[in-house]
Write a structure and sequence with these properties.
With 158 residues, the protein is of the alpha+beta class. The chain has a single domain (8-137), classed as C8orf32 fold (Roll). The chain is built from five helices and five strands. It has helices at residues 22-34, 38-52, 65-71, 76-89, 144-153, and strands spanning 54-55, 73-74, 94-102, 120-130, 133-136.
Length: 158
């Protein structure tokens, strides 16, 4: 069980993670009835978002999760905010870290405006507290064996 006091900042709604809206709360109620396990709940929520929220390109990064759910379309960051809002509403603490991505990553997607792309882009990368361990969004599908193998290969730089 999560210590609600210790992680209260990681559970509260924010301007973007506005999980108190009726649509997000109803989704969480439905998911919680089906999944007691937090990881399974997150996987199911991720699948539902992938099916119901159409991906688009947009720069409106401050759009609340409730708006994205209502519009049924959003950028990658907006859809990840929806997953984070769902997690918080389900009592799963979240936090985010920034990943620096080379602007060259976007070249194939935006060939005609390549000259306007920045050298580097910061992406917000959500993490979820599962079994007393912070898990990156890309690891919610990973088994413990796969995660352990990946962690063992990461060079430690102190």
């Amino acid at each position: 069980m999560i210590d609600q006091t210790r992680f209260s900042e990681n559970l509260k709604p924010t301007a973007i993670l506005d999980w108190e809206c009726p649509a997000i709360r109803a989704l969480v109620t439905d998911l919680r009835q089906k999944y007691a396990d937090d990881r399974e709940l997150l996987k199911s929520a991720h699948r539902q978002l992938a099916q119901s929220v159409r991906p688009i390109y947009t720069l409106h990064e401050l759009q609340p999760a409730s708006v994205t759910v209502h519009k049924k379309w959003g950028s990658c960051s907006q859809r990840m905010a929806c997953l984070e809002a769902i997690a918080r509403a389900a009592g799963i603490p979240t936090r985010a870290r920034a990943l620096r991505i080379s602007g060259r990553f976007w070249y194939p997607r935006f060939r005609t405006i390549r000259m306007f792309l920045p050298k580097d882009v910061l992406l917000v990368w959500p993490q979820f507290l599962l079994n007393d361990d912070w898990i990156d969004v890309d690891e919610i599908y990973a088994s413990l064996t796969n995660r352990s193998a990946r962690i063992a290969r990461i060079p430690q730089r102190w």
